[in-house]
């Protein structure tokens, strides 16, 4: 690996670690406890935000050309989103059996299916991320697969989050979230609500750009 590539990977890794740390600190402040289950929430949230940043770099750099330098980070950030999402999925499925049992995953099948769909798409996008695949598939087909795949997976994660968390958000807005030994400060908003708002903003921005583009190309 050449030096430039290594620096790029280290920066992307640093950004991912910073996002993970912010979520971990917030979750700790809200709960005053930290364990594998809480780290798992931070892994899922980090994956969602890093994926969102990856999707934003392209459109933002078209409007603000100084962001053009960030385009090369999309591959490393995308792969890091996949890896943190994979860690989250493996911990959820196999390492917290006292909370997340097989009946839980079957009952919550829409959340399970959308989570697995996102992981599957990100895995596929990672396998075709190498330069030789761009040559093999042809540039425009490769870009189309990366963009469509990236957005479909992002929407799947968004649905996954809503399926699992909306009941808790409604409870929190109604002031009904109780203090428990695992939740010292229920008055603080759930971290997942911030993830929801950021993801909704990114999806909304994308829809706005698409509508603007459609209006311009038809008018
Ligand atoms: C790309 C893939 C995925 C992403 C980005 C993702 C993201 C998230 C996020 C942001 C949360 C909310 C965390 C919170 O409570 O603060 C969450 C919760 C959860 N996810 Fe995923 N997820 C993914 C895939 C999966 C898969 C495949 C499974 C297992 C089948 C899974 C199981 C869970 C469970 C059980 C929770 C609830 C965690 C809790 O309340 O402590 N996720 N996920």
From TrEMBL:
Protein keywords: Membrane, Transmembrane, Transmembrane helix
Membrane-traversing stretches: 12-30, 42-64, 76-97, 109-128, 149-168, 188-208
The protein's name: Ferric oxidoreductase domain-containing protein
Organism: Candidatus Gottesmanbacteria bacterium RIFCSPHIGHO2_01_FULL_46_14
């Amino acid at each position: 690996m050449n030096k430039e590539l290594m620096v790029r990977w280290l920066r992307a890794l640093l950004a991912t670690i910073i996002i993970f740390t912010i979520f971990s600190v917030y979750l700790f402040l809200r709960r005053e406890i930290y364990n594998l289950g809480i780290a798992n929430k931070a892994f899922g949230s980090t994956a969602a935000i890093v994926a969102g940043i990856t999707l934003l770099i392209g459109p933002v750099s078209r409007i603000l050309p100084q962001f053009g330098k960030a385009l090369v980070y999309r591959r490393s950030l995308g792969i890091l989103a996949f890896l943190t999402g994979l860690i989250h999925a493996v911990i959820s499925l196999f390492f917290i059996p006292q909370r997340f049992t097989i009946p839980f995953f079957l009952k919550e099948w829409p959340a399970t299916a959308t989570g697995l769909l996102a992981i599957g798409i990100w895995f596929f996008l990672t396998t075709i991320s190498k330069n030789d695949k761009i040559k093999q598939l042809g540039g425009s087909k490769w870009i189309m697969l990366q963009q469509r795949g990236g957005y479909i997976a992002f929407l799947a994660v968004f649905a996954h989050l809503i399926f699992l968390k909306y009941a808790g958000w409604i409870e929190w807005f109604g002031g009904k979230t109780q203090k428990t030994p695992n939740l010292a400060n229920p008055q603080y908003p759930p971290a997942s609500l911030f993830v929801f708002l950021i993801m909704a903003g990114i999806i909304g921005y994308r829809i706005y750009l698409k509508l603007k583009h459609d209006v311009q190309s038809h008018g």
